Amino acid sequence: MYTTTEIQRRLVRFAVAGVLLLPLWGFPAGAGATDGRSADAAARQANMIRATTVAIDARKDSARLTFTLTAAVEAKAFLLERPDRVIIDLPEVNFQLPKNAGRPPSGKGHFIGSFRFGLFAPERSRVVIDLREPALVGRVETVRTETGAELVIELNKATRAAYRKAALRPMVDSGDGLPGQQPDTPKTVTHGPKNEALPLVVIDPGHGGIDPGAQTGDGVLEKDVVFAFAQRLRDMLEASGRYRVMMTRTTDTFIALGARTRVARQAGADLFISIHADTLGAGGGVRGATIYTGSDLATDLESARLADKENLADQIAGVEAAEDPDEIVGILADLTKRETRTFSSSFAGNVIDSFKGTVLLNKNPHRSAGFRVLKAPDVPSVLVELGYLSSAKDAALLVSDEWQKNAANALNEAISRYFSQRSPTEKAGGVAFSP
User: Fold this and answer.
1) Are 343 and 103 in contact (CB under 8 A)?
2) Taking Cα atoms as reference points, which of 120, 87, 400, 128 lies closest to residue 251?
């Protein structure tokens, strides 16, 4: 058994430097990454300030990133450590950049790693630049041009002492708290019947916004795959009339890990399902869905690796990770956690049974590890890895409209079986979910 912290230090820089943000991938009709409930979303995006190109000039002691924009914006910068990152906060920008944008610049001897960009919070975008060595912000300026504007970010190599001093001193106050703080818990809307006695299912599409999650070599992003699937599952659950349904995000935006859990707890969720699609650097032959439940010890090294990688989502978005407060203490806490984990494992078994014959399962389909998003002590929770984007066969299925429909239907059946197996008053913490 491996603790989820044993390989944390080795994974931090790999995971943060290795994840890039690319343009949205197109899905088949009915599986797009735009929430159909927002009829004006496309028009709003069309009127948004756009970033159309980015150029990088990386040298030994200095670097310059230049974004071409359709209009001028106000940019604010600050630094974060562990790992070293430069954060640029902007008003909402529609990044329409090439697939390879965000990759580390070519050549050796420079201090720039990869960089990411995307929606960080409502009406707020962010650029996160990973640093291989300490560097300070020399200039962040928007220069107006005949066709719009250029956002110029100049960095200069610095000593560790100078970097640490600058990182401890916020350069700006963005108006949403100190730089690096987690955004507020997102506002959510419950869909489906208004009957409060019906069980509440919270669907959590992993990643989003500036955090793309895993990706294929040709630009398919995990955040888009799982969002399309989550929408399909939500629609099925609503159509049944047997559940109230809530999603942690309904747009392509970043949601902190702690905020995802708070959404479920504050709403009094009866079931929390986090949807993901993993990737292995050298594991193109590994395929199939895996269902994870939360635990203090990982069942295997691969599960520990995945939990550690997923737990870095806040750092990838340029947010200081916060400890998850345990709001239930003492004997009650222990009893509630045990009961919740029992319910979580029961539902994981339901999912595996429903997937058989419809969705290819991993050779070891039920695993556990210390995922932060599964730490709600009073909400039964699972993380469903639909498949591996590192597998060409899995990736082709994951973006298939027919496969998504069949997989969502199987998960819908698992949810139905789970609630039908529980007595009318069963709920973690002892609160009834139905009359």
Assistant:
1) no
2) 120
What is the predicted pLDDT for the residue at 29?
34
State phi, psi for 324 to the nearest 5 degrees.
-85, 115
Q: Radius of gyration (Cα) for the chain, nearest Å?
A: 22
Pick the closest to residue 433 from 188, 200, 189, 239 (CA basis).
200
Q: Which residues of the chain have pLDDT under 50?
A: 1-37, 172-183, 325-329, 428-435
Count the Cβ atoms, other than its own, within 10 Å of residue 37: 11
From residue 17, alpha-carbon distances to 65, 102, 174, 197, 407 in Å are 17, 10, 25, 46, 32
Query: 77 phi and psi, to 5 degrees?
Result: -125, 150
Q: How many residues in the chain?
A: 435
**Domains, the chain:** 48-168 (2.60.40.3500), 200-420 (3.40.630.40)
Residue appearing with tokens 């960009």 = 117
Residue 315 structure tokens: 């750092």
Tell me how far apart the alpha carbons of residues 40 and 425 are, in angstroms, rounded to a whole number: 41
Nearest to 382 by CA among 200, 235, 202: 202
The DSSP bridge partners found for residue 149 are 69, 144
Q: What is the pLDDT of residue 108?
A: 82
Angle CA(120)–CA(94)–CA(129) in degrees, nearest 5? 55
CA-to-CA dists, residue 65 to 12, 24, 59, 77, angstroms: 24, 22, 12, 13
Q: Which residues are CB-contacts of 91 (< 8 A; sequence separation ≥ 6)? A: 49, 73, 74, 123, 124, 125
- In this structure, the strands spanning 200-205 and 271-278 are parallel
What is the pLDDT at residue 107? 80
Q: How far is CA 123 from CA 94, 132, 347, in A?
A: 11, 30, 37
- CA neighbours closer than 13 Å in the CB half-sphere of residue 61: 2
pLDDT for 189 equals 55
Residue listed under structure tokens 């939500």: 234
- How many whole angstroms separate alpha carbon 123 and alpha carbon 304? 35
CA distances from 209 to 3, 129, 316, 318 (A): 29, 15, 11, 12
CB 95 within 8 A of CB 65: no
Entry pTM: 0.75
